[in-house]
Specification:
Length: 337
């Protein structure tokens, strides 16, 4: 058709370039793959965050279990280990939050994921310092509030997720399309995603990207204790439960400590008794120190599909390879209308 083959190639290149859809999350963060490793207390330090960022996703340091000087050290080590963007997750109930913000500003961390609190409190201040702000929500109501507060993107996290969780028990399958209908800023889906097929499904529901936590607990670089990692890969479907709704709802592996909570409920325990039973330091004891009996073991329902401990880069690679296969299958035989 074209007399000069070079012109033909050039035109095809331009057409393909124009057809290429930009991904809003990749553009916002300056990353190659729309996959975020969720910030996780006791599990996501600089080693995991830098490994995920180096693999093309976005690594997130979980600062909720760090003293300010420890966060400082993790940010410095993360910067030394990667020249790619990374983020810090900040649960806003953290007692020394002002100090964490100082550290984040001092090191010019480019992206902050806030969770467990009101996004209005810090968003404007962080944005005025040139930081991109993402807020984690578990309902449409809070997604709208976060958008109003001016955040750059939202993580909508369904009931399947590991760690602390929404009270309304809305699953990822329902939450993502509902949030998508109500907000227009970029949307990241979280909760129950651990495979390429899961990632594609979430993006088909309307998400621009996914945030994955549990799968990265079982990574070589996660700072979870090896006893916890081994337990995660052995946890079957049905091996986790959302509990402690009267305090802060959390999804836990059904270990001895979980059954102590269940017994307390059966005996009519209220807020005070549950607080006493939980005590202090349970999450550290279970996830960081590896006490599988008395410790709190936070993990998501997807643990039923996680059966190996891999380097973080291999996890990212496996997910993206599977997503590409699933995408090709989706475009072919299944829909013969
Ligand atoms: C062990 C663990 C600790 C977590 N800690 C936090 C945290 O400190 N802050 C937060 O915003 N989310 C936390 N999360 C939630 C994750 O960031 C992520 O949104 C969630 O794990 C996604 O669901 P998934 O577990 O099904 O992948 C935690 C999750 C796990 C499994």
């Amino acid at each position: 058709m074209f007399k000069c083959p070079f012109i033909g190639l050039l035109i095809n290149f331009v057409i393909n370039f124009l057809k290429m859809e930009k991904n809003r999350i990749c553009d916002l963060f300056g990353i190659e793959i729309p996959l975020i490793q969720g910030g996780m207390i006791w599990c996501s330090g600089w080693e995991l965050a830098s490994a995920v960022s180096n693999a093309g996703g976005l690594g997130v340091i979980g600062s909720g279990s760090m003293y300010p000087n420890i966060l400082d050290e993790h940010i410095q080590k993360c910067k030394a280990a990667t020249d790619k963007p990374f983020a810090v997750n900040l649960p806003m109930l953290y007692p020394d939050i002002d100090k964490h913000f100082e550290t984040i500003l001092k090191h010019k961390v480019p992206i902050v994921f806030t969770s467990a609190g009101n996004p209005k409190t810090w968003t404007a201040h962080l944005k005025s310092q040139g930081i991109k702000v993402v807020h984690v929500v578990s309902s449409v109501k809070f997604a709208k509030k976060a958008e109003e507060a001016g955040v750059d993107a939202i993580v909508a996290e369904g009931f399947e997720a590991g760690g602390h969780n929404g009270r309304d028990e809305t699953t990822t399958l329902c939450l993502i399309p509902m949030v998508k209908n109500e907000v227009s800023i970029p949307l990241i889906a979280a909760g129950g995603i651990g495979t390429g097929r899961g990632m594609l499904a979430a993006m088909n529901l309307g998400a621009d990207a996914v945030q994955i936590g549990s799968r990265f607990v079982a990574s070589k670089e996660s700072s979870a204790h090896k006893n916890f990692k081994e337990t995660v890969i052995q946890t079957p479907e049905g091996g986790t439960m959302l509990t402690l709704k009267e305090l802060t709802p959390v999804r836990l592996i059904k270990n001895d400590f979980y059954y102590q909570i269940e017994n307390a409920y059966n005996q009519g325990a209220g807020h005070e008794k549950l607080t006493e039973l939980l005590g202090r330091g349970r999450a550290k004891k279970g996830m960081y120190e590896g006490d599988l009996t008395e410790g709190e073991l936070e993990i998501g329902q997807i643990s039923g599909l996680i059966n190996k401990i891999l380097p973080a880069a291999a996890i990212v690679d496996e997910i993206i390879t599977e997503l590409k296969v699933a995408l090709r299958e989706q475009n072919t035989a299944k829909f013969n209308f």
